[in-house]
């Protein structure tokens, strides 16, 4: 099969084990998208992936308004995942700004996304509303992974308070965007394989939050002389990190 991106073959995420020769049942929403939106028919080519590595060229065996099935034909490993595992810790933003930040981070190779509640953030979510938002952001990540050729589906973790996350933050390098910082990250003796990247809300981190982040090992960095919006900062920083330590070189 020719490369899916050149042929515009649809890529679909399926949450199950995939094996060559299996017939995979697709959901009603996926069936509607394939038939009503893309106007495909039985026999059309697909690419399936389950988010655990590699992808599976397949062929639609049946398709109707409410269901579809696809036959798995082969397994391949195009190796599109970055060697740099970045966790984006993103302050929750209003409206579609958070959707934008999540989608672009996935396209740029992020490994995981941690939404954060901060002192100056104006988003208050609890209970079922919080659960719905997390599911929505995960769906945004899934759609971006399908479109961008990802083999791994990044997890959008349950939102939490910044101070709670800082207590368990990992990463060989820990970076936070700070427009008052003197410059970009200083080159270390070795290239890191993991980075935690901390992005503040529209109004920035409070002084107390900056002190707490530095106490947890985060270096303040800035990207040029301009102040970036919160939904722009994460993708811009990810692109810079992929250029320096990832797979943009």
UniProtKB/TrEMBL annotation:
InterPro entries linked: Alpha/beta_knot_MTases, PUA-like_sf, RsmE, RsmE_MTase_dom, RsmE_PUA-like, tRNA_m1G_MTases_N
Domain Ribosomal RNA small subunit methyltransferase E methyltransferase as annotated: residue spans: 81-242
Recorded GO MF terms: methyltransferase activity
Entries under Pfam families matching the protein: Methyltrans_RNA, PUA_4
Subcellular localization, as worded in the UniProt entry: Cytoplasm
CDD domains attached to this UniProt entry: RsmE-like
Its EC number(s): 2.1.1.193
Example GO biological process: methylation
Catalytic function, reaction form: uridine(1498) in 16S rRNA + S-adenosyl-L-methionine = N(3)-methyluridine(1498) in 16S rRNA + S-adenosyl-L-homocysteine + H(+)
Keyword set, alphabetical order: Cytoplasm, Methyltransferase, rRNA processing, S-adenosyl-L-methionine, Transferase
EC main group: transferase
Keyword DNA repair in annotation: no
Domain Ribosomal RNA small subunit methyltransferase E PUA-like: 28-72
Physiological role: Specifically methylates the N3 position of the uracil ring of uridine 1498 (m3U1498) in 16S rRNA. Acts on the fully assembled 30S ribosomal subunit.
Family in the record: Belongs to the RNA methyltransferase RsmE family.
Name of the protein: Ribosomal RNA small subunit methyltransferase E
Lineage: Bacteria, Pseudomonadati, Pseudomonadota, Gammaproteobacteria, Salinisphaerales
């Amino acid at each position: 099969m020719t490369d899916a991106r050149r042929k515009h073959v649809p890529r679909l995420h399926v949450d199950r084990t995939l094996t060559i020769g299996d017939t995979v049942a697709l959901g009603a929403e996926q069936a509607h998208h394939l038939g009503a939106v893309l106007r495909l028919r039985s026999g059309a080519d697909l690419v399936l992936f389950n988010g655990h590595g590699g992808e599976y060229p397949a062929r639609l065996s049946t398709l109707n308004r409410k269901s579809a099935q696809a036959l798995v034909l082969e397994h391949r490993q195009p190796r599109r995942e970055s060697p740099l595992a970045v966790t984006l810790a993103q302050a929750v933003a209003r409206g579609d700004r958070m959707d934008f930040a999540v989608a672009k981070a996935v396209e740029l190779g992020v490994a995981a996304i941690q939404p954060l509640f901060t002192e100056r953030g104006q988003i208050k979510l609890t209970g079922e509303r919080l659960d719905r938002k997390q599911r929505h952001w995960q769906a945004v990540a899934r759609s971006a992974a399908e479109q961008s050729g990802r083999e791994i589906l990044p997890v959008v973790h349950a939102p939490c308070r910044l101070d709670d996350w800082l207590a368990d933050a990992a990463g060989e390098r820990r970076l936070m965007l700070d427009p008052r910082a003197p410059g970009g990250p200083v080159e270390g003796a070795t290239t890191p394989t993991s980075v935690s990247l901390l992005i503040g809300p529209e109004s920035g981190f409070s002084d107390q939050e900056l002190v707490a982040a530095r106490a947890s090992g985060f270096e303040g960095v800035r990207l040029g002389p301009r102040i970036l919006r919160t939904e722009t900062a994460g993708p811009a920083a990810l692109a810079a990190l992929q250029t320096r330590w990832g797979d943009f070189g």
